[in-house]
Amino acid sequence: MKKILFIEDEAAIHKTFSDALAKEDYEITSALDGAIGLRLAKEKKPDLILLDLVLPKMNGFEVLKALKADEATKTIPVIVLTNLEQMEDIQKAIDLGARTYLVKSNYDLAEVVDMVKKASAEA
Amino acid sequence: MNVGEECRKYSIPLSQCPQFLFFVMGILIIISVMFSFSLGKRYIDDPQITLLLILSLTGVLLAMAFIITRSFEQLAEANRLKTEFVSIVSHQLRSPLTNLKWGLDFLLSEGAARNQQETGYFHILNENIGRMHELVNDLLTVSRVEQGTFPFQEKEFELQEVIDQVLVEFQSASVASNVEIRVEGKRMLRLYNDPSLVHHVLGNLIDNAIRYAWNDTGVASQGKRERNRIVIRLKDEGPGVRVEVEDNGVGIPAEDQKYIFQKFFRSSNAVRRQTEGSGLGLFIVKSLLEKAGGQIGFKSEENKGSTFWFTLPYGANTHKGIIKKT
Q: pLDDT digits over A92-104, tens only?
């Protein structure tokens, strides 16, 4: 069973995602802020991390930087899932080591779920 | 005080910038004082009266300059805050809209249980969320264009490739509206500009041409009519390219034509035909083209059709100062 850590402060998105992947063989862990997300990433060693950028306590860039600086978590692929779409944000996330950058509002749920499935299969 | 930096903050030309105007008025005051001094020296014997006159004149001019530039500054600041406000609100609206959209996507997916009536309502909700999403995106684009932060990404590209992409996108919509689209003119044109800008502009013009094509009701009421068609015409015009999008649709009423590029304007036949749209499409297209060194125009006749055209230079373009190239 593949493990996915979803770091996102919107509870509604967590529920939708969990429901959409309910029939698949995934263990989904939710974190509602950046600090908890970072702690859970170290504890659970997920196969894939979905990361929002606008987060309480620690923003997504800080979480990404910390993940990539830690030997235990640096190889975990990270998909950034956010509504920030400025070029400088995209470039910064990619430079920090994000594998993919998705602007939420540009995708349907099914498209994002497909991308997550593909990324976790490759992980 | 850095005048240039202050003026850039308001995203307005130098001639309308309060700090620059204050500087110009200061120079004018010095000139007028010197002029008054030379006049006083020649025609007034008592130096104290001359001095008093000059001081009074300086005071009045300075007060006027201050009041005028202060008013300009307040207006410019209000405009900047408005653009910033639209940008922030639009961004904040995106998150709840995505939550709604994804929630509905799930309810409409195969895994969720629902009856026929629920499915119907979910589709209505989904369609309206799509419209709201489009409006929020348009507002964000408008505020970025006005703030000069629209991310233009220039590179060399083949115009035909962009046209082909746009045609693929509109294939199903054109078939559904019984519109034939064809391309005429010079094909192998290369541009150095932002291909997504050309994509956006052309997509908007074709979308409008399809929306305002004659529908079945129109055919019935107008008698026999030729098939709906759109012709995309490419022309090489020396320093740039000219692209025309001609349709034989319902056209734009003469009284509406002068407002067509205004923000939020929707022509009377758009309202009559209940065509969806925010009224921002052509405003955005015009603003983007002008920032990229191009132009746009049209000719139209009601009940006969419209031809919209735009031009873009072939070569590398300087974005007139305020657009940040990323």
A: 999 999 999 998 8
Mean pLDDT of B29-54: 81
Q: What per-residue confidence (pLDDT) applies to B295?
A: 93
Residue B183 counted as domain residue: yes
**B226 and B183 in one domain?**
yes
What confidence category does residue B78 fall into, taking pLDDT thresholds of 50, 70 and 90? confident
Query: Of B149, B184, B216, which residue constitutes the final position of a domain?
Result: B149
B85 against A78, higher pLDDT: A78
How many domains, chain B? 2
Which domains does chain A show, CATH number per domain? 2-122 (3.40.50.2300)
Interface predicted TM-score of the whole assembly (ipTM), two decimals: 0.84
Tell me: do B163 and B132 sit in the same domain.
Answer: no
H runs (alpha helix) in chain B: 3-10, 18-43, 47-108, 116-147, 159-169, 171-176, 195-211, 216-222, 268-272, 281-291
* pLDDT of B318 strictly over 70: no
SS3 B242: strand
Nearest to B178 by CA among B226, B246, B243: B226
User: Given strand B295-301, what is the order of strands in its sheet?
Assistant: B179-185, B228-237, B240-247, B305-313, B295-301
Please give the structure tokens belonging to residue B268.
């009377």
Statement to judge: residues B142 and B233 lie in one domain? no
Of B103, B151, B153, the CB nearest to A12: B103
Q: Which residues contact B126 (CB under 8 A, 6 or more apart)?
A: B101, B104, B105, B108
A interface toward B at CB cutoff 8 Å? 10, 12-13, 16-17, 19-20, 22-23, 83, 86-88, 104-105, 108-110, 112
Answer yes or no: is pLDDT of B126 > 50.
yes
pLDDT recorded at residue B225 = 65
B133 vs A: CB within 8 A: yes
B292-319 burial, b if ≥16 CB within 10 A, otherwise e?
Answer: bbbebebebebeebbbbbbbbbbeebee
The answer to whether the Cβ–Cβ distance between A109 and B102 falls below 8 Å is: yes
- Same domain (yes/no): B192, B79: no
Whether this model's pTM surpasses 0.80: no
* Residue after which a domain boundary falls, among B93, B126, B149: B149
